[in-house]
Amino acid sequence: MDPTTRTAAELAAGIHAGELSSVEVTRSHLERIAKVDSEINAFLHVDTEGALATAEKVDADIAAGRPPVSPLAGVPLGLKDVLTTKGIPTTCGSRTLEGWVPPYDATVTRKLREADVVVLGKTNMDEFAMGSSTENSAYGPTRNPWDTARVPGGSSGGSAAALAAFQAPVTVGTDTGGSVRQPGALTGTVGVKPTYGGVSRYGLVAFSSSLDQAGPCARTVLDAALLHEVIGGHDPMDSTSLNAPVPSVVEAARRGSSGDLSGVRVGVVTELGGEGYQPGVLRSFASAVDTLRELGAEVVEVSCPNFEYALSAYYLIAPSECSSNLARFDAMRYGLRVADDGTNGADDVMSLSREAGFGAEVKRRIIIGTYALSAGYYDAYYGSAQKVRSLVTRDFDAAYEQVDVLVSPTAPTTAFRVGERVDDPMSMYRGDLCTIPTNLAGTAAMSVPSGLSDEDGLPVGLQIMAPALADDRMYEVGAAYERARDAAAGGALVDRIPEL
Amino acid sequence: MSQISRDELAHLAKLARLGVSEAELDTFVGQLDVILDSVAKVGEVAGDDIPPMSHAANLTNVFRSDEIRPGLSQQEALSGAPAAEDGRFCVPRILGEEQ
Question: pTM of this prediction?
């Protein structure tokens, strides 16, 4: 059987039992990348040598009777190009960092290396993770394997498309306003935003520090859980990393796959649906809610009235933090420097380098952030947005007193066409409507495929949200739902992706 | 109502040390107006009694013990520098002729 169509759990079981060789599994994925990536553009850099070296080590360990160092040892993975990798280029999808080779590993990277996970390479993304379509990459857009005329979502579009194109069984993405979950929805894959502080941000090139969170992407809920446990946990190198016990998400996913949700209270968020949502998305969502009910869950409707203001708050807070964070790209210590010909002073070199290095969306956000933080406008914009953040968090707190998890569609529409929204930033931003509240509150959420929209045949995602540090709840519900959906549909959604 | 003029936009870009072309200014001025008009909605519910929230983690004073740990070598720290000389970053001049 072709290793590229198998799940990470299956590959790990085969490799650890000595039935599959990690080198062969890795080669199959590298060959798949070589075959389809000219069309998909999911990878910005492929590390053939490094990947095979890790795979060889795992095979040698197994042959010598040594136990695998982690449940994912020997399994190939794609890493979003926003996480630093020592000795391997990290561009963040930006010209500014073209050719930059970081001198250190992100904590996520270090954990993957220590777990003997085979890092195939770095995945494409919207520049500095700003975008919802991966069209803002300086290295060309990533294409959606379901229909290559369409976007895979963003900003972790490369990580999601790599899964749907069977280039990797698991990938890592980052989610600031929905950048893991929305691409998951648009490509028919699973995307998880863990509780803020659940996965270390050390070495994650910062866009909006109070919102950024790395998370696992996979084709099944169990695979996402396995990766979550490899990359998660407290890290002294990140002062916002939570030092608190998190219940096992792998156990929760296994428990959920028994298919019984009796006693679980599920809240449907009233405000995340209705006008502005694609009818096929709403029908898929309604059918998913019926399935949860059939599995024994108690479903009620829950109102979160301030979610209506979340999008506005986000598009003030994120650009504000971005305008401050991206000041580090000053052309002095690393990154692109232009016009340093002896006639220009530091100020001019800085401005000209940033002009040459940043794309349009990054520039827009730096300007908006600078505006929102400037004297005279601070209270009306940034200050008010921070208050809305409190209100959104209060809505979540009240909701989670009534229910265990909340559900909504992950995105208001299915995958849109490449180029369709690039000239209209607000229409692009509105795609993050359902995912943003979770980032503002720092809670957890995942997207699980709920089928295809009946009017265009494109994938739809079910968003399952859980309170902070209760990530296990969404894994349990997600795994139960996934099993029921696949059984009813006669197979997994990814089996229906057209041949590339 | 126009929230932001072309001149204001150019000024903000200057403050952010961000060069923008004339063509970009033309594009951005309309787009930023639409965006700012939309996000101004936060003012509708941001009452005086609502505390601002800067962060979800609610952690304060996270300290580490004062121990020597491995860090980057000088060579590693300079490895990405656009220009380096004698183990230092080499930067364009900061002061003008008259200074």
Answer: 0.97
